[in-house]
Specification:
Layout: E1 10-21, E2 24-35, E3 39-43, H1 50-57, E4 65-70, E5 73-74, E6 77-80, E7 83-86, H2 89-96, E8 99-102, H3 114-124, H4 130-143, H5 159-171, E9 177-181, H6 189-204, E10 208-212, H7 216-222, E11 225-230, E12 233-238, H8 240-245, H9 250-256
Parallel strand pairs: 3-10, 3-11, 8-9, 9-10
Antiparallel strand pairs: 1-2, 1-4, 4-5, 6-7, 11-12
Helix pairs in contact: 3-4, 3-5, 4-5, 5-6
Length: 260
């Protein structure tokens, strides 16, 4: 692996991760190392395993094999009825409380206002006092430019506003690491910029982020690490300069050529 600044504390480390669905091998031995403050973008063609890799980090998908460490803590696995599963769900819940996940399709609760969406997990999962959760929610809504929409329901928001609300909801748990799964892929082109601006601002704050994205220019400009996946393997990795301009992989060169 590329060793960019090992002196920083570990945020997410994956070693030789495999993921198989029945006979379909999606990930075939992927490793990555993200330290605190890293912005790591995962790029590659559709079907290369990017979203599956991201979902394995917070165990929305269970890795078939491989090691996973989050914030320096090794996630323990066991085998039950022939299936590899986490050994300790309390450990998983603790780990997830430090990972903020933003999905492609917003996943907001339609029956709740924006403010209620942002407060829900802190209050009902993390047991944050309601007054504190409300104060925290209003602060993150201000950060993403949605203070004036806090009493609206998701159906009355644009796609860009819904995704910014989803980012606010992820920020409200005060995560150590933010995970973004193609956060602009469901948006109309004119709405992409407002979401990328919020993510750029988070990167400028020094927040640790792992992004699956098809926005090549954004990945180049915002990241300090880039992984190019091809058919479930890391084909190229390194700094944006190395991946976008100095790659030795012809597949990677062809994939990123659209930004030149």
């Amino acid at each position: 692996m590329i060793d960019l600044h090992r002196s920083a504390a570990e945020a997410v480390v994956i070693e030789d991760l495999h993921k198989q669905f029945d006979d379909l091998k999606v990930l075939k031995g992927v490793s990555l190392h993200a330290n605190e403050g890293d912005v790591l973008s995962i790029i590659g063609a559709s079907g290369s395993g990017k979203s599956t890799l991201l979902r394995c980090i917070n165990l929305l998908e269970q890795p078939t094999s491989g090691e996973l460490r989050v914030n320096g803590e090794q996630i323990e696995f066991t085998v039950k009825r022939g299936v590899r599963v986490p050994k300790n769900m309390r450990q998983v819940e603790k780990m997830r409380s430090k990972l903020g996940m933003v999905f492609q399709n917003f996943n907001l609760w339609a029956h709740m206002t924006v403010l209620q969406n942002v407060m829900e997990v802190p209050v009902h999962v993390l047991k944050v006092p309601k007054a504190e959760a409300r104060e925290r929610a209003e602060a993150v809504l201000e950060r993403v430019g949605l203070s004036d929409k806090r009493d609206q329901y998701p159906a009355y928001l644009s796609g860009g506003q819904q995704q910014r609300a989803a980012i606010a909801r992820a920020l409200a748990i005060e995560p150590r690491v933010m995970l973004f799964d193609e956060p602009t892929s469901a948006l109309d082109p004119e709405l992409v910029g407002e979401v990328l601006k919020v993510i750029q601002d988070l990167a400028n704050e020094g927040r640790t982020m792992i992004l699956v994205t098809h926005e090549m220019k954004f990945a180049r400009d915002v990241s300090n690490q880039v992984l190019f996946l091809h058919e479930g393997l890391v084909e190229e990795e390194g700094t944006p300069q190395q991946v976008f301009y100095e790659t030795k992989s012809e597949r990677c060169k062809a994939f990123v050529s659209s930004i030149h």
